[in-house]
Amino acid sequence: MMGPAHSLSGAAAWLGVGAAAAGLGHPMPWPTVLVGALICAGAALAPDLDHQAATISRAFGPLSRALCKIVDGLAHATYKATRKKGDPRRAGGHRTLTHTWLWAVLVGGGFSAAAVYGGRWAVLVILFIHMVLAVEGLLWRQARMSSDVLVWLLGATSAWMLADVLDDPGNGKDWLFTQPGQHYLWIGLPIVLGSLVHCIGDALTVSGCPVLWPIPIGRRRWYPVGPPKFMRFRAGSWVEIKVLTPVFFVVGGGCALGALGVIG
């Protein structure tokens, strides 16, 4: 799928988690619902770090372009080192390492650890990164028409304001993990979820997605998981734009009402 659909599906997924948590009697404070949805929307773009033409490669200027080259090389090297006889040879690393459950868990766990041990400044950096990505994904038309500096200023301002809101007692920095020293431990969850939602979205397309790596399936370790081929579509096709995108809007809106306790 393309960037906007990935981001929108990520936001809808976190709102679904919020609705489920409310239904189970453990509702999120509204700042956690909002911040988690934005982080998940941004994280849903992150697996395309292995693609030098993706939205995320442009998000942070030369820094993100250089990072994409490094990740692409790492992903390609990992593919070559771990592929089985049934896996085809390939020239790049797109839709390999960063499109797996293991990558999602490692990245989410790393960000959680950074938030817990790095304090407020680490939280601000995490929020800034994902706010910028959320703007690039959810408001992609406006982002394309604006300068990168304006997008970065919006991301930085949003990160600072949201961190202040979360820091107020009862506003969500200790949601789910309530013991001393566990503040913001939850912040890796929307990052893991966003990455997995991205993989599921790509699995629906013609190429599929090797989300189960390194678990081997038959003669392949990089098996492109997906539905039957007649149910798949090309990225950016009418199915994505005319069908899935409206569904993400409706489902996300309904889940938001459930997460905030408006409907039960």
UniProtKB/TrEMBL annotation:
Keywords: Membrane, Transmembrane, Transmembrane helix. Signal peptide: none annotated. The chain crosses the membrane at residues 31-49, 97-115, 121-140, 149-166, 186-213, 241-263. It comes from the Bacteria. It holds the Pfam family YdjM. This is Integral membrane protein. It comes from Actinacidiphila bryophytorum.
